[in-house]
Amino acid sequence: MFEAIAASFSHIFTVKVILMIIAGLFGGLMSGALPGLTATMAVALLVPFTFTMNPTEGLIVLGAIYMACIYGGSFSAILVNTPGTPSSIGTTFDGYPMAKKGEGERAILTATFSSAYGGVIGVIFLLFLSPPLANVALKFGPPEYFWMAVFGITIISSLASKNILKGFIGGAIGLLISTIGIAPIGGDVRFTAGYPQLQGGIELIVALIGFFCIPEALTMISNRTQKFHLTEAEHKGGIILKTFFDVMKRQGNLLRSSIVGTIVGILPGAGGSVANLVAYNEAIRVSKTPEKFGTGIADGIIATEASNNAVVGGGMIPLVTLGIPGAPPDAVLYGVLLLHGLRPGPELFTTHSEVVYTFIMSLFVATILMIPVGVIAGRLLHRTVVRLPIRFLAPIIFFLTIIGSYSIRNNVTDVYIMLTLGVIGYVLKRLDFHPGPITLGLILGPIGEMGFVQALLMGQVLPNKWMIFFIHPLSWVLIVMSLLSLGWPLFMKRFSKRWEIKEMTTDES
Amino acid sequence: MKADRIASIIFVITGLVFWSQTGELQINCSIFPRMLIIFMILLSAVMLIQTFLIAPPKAVSFIPESLKYIVTSTAVVFAWIYLLNILGFIVSSVVCLTILTIILDLQKPTIVGTLLSIGIYTLMVVTFWLIFHSFLLVPLPTGHFI
């Protein structure tokens, strides 16, 4: 293995390949920052450009695009409260409030260093722990996927701790929206109100753009008396190094979130959209000051950004070891590998070890190069958004939402759906229903339904079909995790009050 | 509180409407949505009861002045989507972006300022069109124009 790694460096450290990685990083960053252009789309759209390259170079460029795209989603999440990709939903919770406080640059730098850290950890896991971790993915059957969706939904109790009831209603709305269209098992058409355009269901990205971007643009319009959307803080010298040390001080959060991202990435079908929210939830649970989350603190950004970039390496573990894509962009990479005559699976490491190790090491190099590229691009974008008056910024956001929602399926109906959901989202936001739980429901709905119905079908062989949800040990692990996740905020609320009373009485005495 | 009450009633009604559509579905297709509908109706009912029991927080209000701009801008964006397939992506986008900028301008728009906006927007939209149409090969809507 080490010989192959050493050999891979000779392929990577050439001017041509480094320039290709940088170009891929810039392309990925810009795609990620545009709401609607997901990592899957960016990788898929740019596949034809790699046809003329040899397999190794093609994979290197696509890997760099994928890594940068996931990170680039944080730019729009921080600057305009709109996740560029579903993997950055959680970044809006603390990134945007931080930017509103005039610390947008610090938020972007925090996202940059955390993303690089998460990316590196994911690649290390990919390099050294691929086979044992891939076996974990194989243990996940339909009941476990259902419980994973339940666990995901319980995160709402942390996300919407100010009003848990409204959070769960929002989650239920998202789950219900996800059932519109043709049923995944059985094939009946549901809740389309007779519109054939809705048979394909509501595209997650379309809903995401609608629920996040449009309410934000409408809020800007309602505040049109202000000239600018964000306040610009005084330019502080040494902010890059200061933020770097501040991020690196939080090793616990960085490592935990990166491991969460890697593990969620390994599970086929989950991906960065789930990982960032799970990591955010875990960061809240472990924090000594959970009430500060959502007010613009670095820990929130670190958790989401480290985890979503760790998904890149994690998602490739089942891809290269079992031939199962962990996340949607991995499915595109699977196709690219096949296109170049490489069959992903256990024998890939032995038959094409040089290509595989060069690809893995290029991801490592791309992650490191992402720091200077991200710092330059991020600061530039920040300065542009901060200096753009609302009369220009709000229309440009509308423009990006239209182009983003249209380009997913080249369908104007999707744009109408996006705007309608956006208006609903704005009204719900005014009523204190936040978009986070709604989009969480949208993400987990298909995973939960598939798991639930498939498990019930599997359970037909048991005396009681519902027992299928409780007979696997892994299911119990997820059930316990769900109960913990659900009860933790309530437990913390009650005990923090008690602790406060205790502290007050000791102070008084 | 009144807004919460109305919202919870709307959610209960929405749930019932969705439930009424699950009648003819196969069990495999209806079991999951039905479970969700029950979940949503139950939570909405709890919220409805809460509105009668808990003291009201600050009322949600829409300032009429800002509401006017929100409604106008939303209408312009709906018109923009409608015009995509009639005027084409570039023309409809430049026209609607300029209209939105004029609506949102705090000062009375000037001819020079408007022409400048048109110029900037044309450059931006054409750049996006070139990237999507020629580089990424994503077909954008076309109408009588591009």
Task: Explain what you see.
The complex is a heterodimer of chains A (509) and B (146). Chain A has 509 residues and is mainly α. Chain A has one domain (2-503). In chain A, 74% of the residues lie in helices and 1% in strands. Chain A has 21 helices and 2 strands. In chain A, strands 1-2 form a two-stranded antiparallel ribbon. In chain A, helix 12 (251-266) runs parallel beside helix 14. Helices cover 76% and strands 0% of the residues of chain B. Chain B is an all-alpha fold. Chain B has helices at residues 2-20, 27-53, 64-87, 89-104, 111-135. Chain B is flat. Chain B is built from 5 helices and no strands. Chain B has 2 domains: 2-53; 64-135, no CATH class. At the A-B interface, helix 9, helix 10, helix 18, helix 19 and helix 20 of A face helix 1, helix 2, helix 3, helix 4 and helix 5 of B.
In a nutshell, what does this entry contain?
The complex is a heterodimer of chains A (509) and B (146). Chain A has 21 helices and 2 strands. Chain A is mainly alpha-helical.
List strands and helices in order, with pairings.
The complex is a heterodimer of chains A (509) and B (146).
Chain A: H1 2-12, H2 15-33, H3 39-46, H4 55-80, H5 91-128, H6 130-138, H7 142-154, H8 156-159, H9 164-178, E1 181-182, E2 189-190, H10 204-222, H11 239-248, H12 251-266, H13 272-286, H14 298-322, H15 328-339, H16 348-351, H17 353-387, H18 390-409, H19 412-430, H20 435-458, H21 473-508
Antiparallel strand pairs in A: 1-2
Chain B: H1 2-20, H2 27-53, H3 64-87, H4 89-104, H5 111-135
Helix pairs in contact in B: 1-2, 3-4, 4-5
What attributes does this structure have?
heterodimer; A: 509 residues; mainly alpha; two-stranded antiparallel ribbon; 21 helices; 2 strands; 74% helix; 1% strand; globular; B: 146 residues; 0% strand
Shape of chain A: globular
Question: In angstroms, what separates the terminal alpha carbons of chain B?
Answer: 49 Å
- Counting DSSP H or I runs of 4 or more residues, the number of helices of chain B is 5
Low-confidence stretches of chain A: none
How many alpha or pi helices of chain A? 21
- Topology order of chain A in helix (H) and strand (E) letters: HHHHHHHHHEEHHHHHHHHHHHH
Q: Report the average pLDDT across residues of chain A.
A: 86
Strand order in space, largest sheet of chain A = 1-2
Order of helices and strands of chain B: HHHHH
Number of structural units classed as domains of chain B: 2
Derived structural class of chain A: mainly alpha
Major sheet description of chain B: none
- Estimated share of beta-strand residues of chain A: under 5%
Q: Which structural class matches the secondary elements of chain B?
A: mainly alpha
Name the poorly predicted regions of chain B. Answer: none
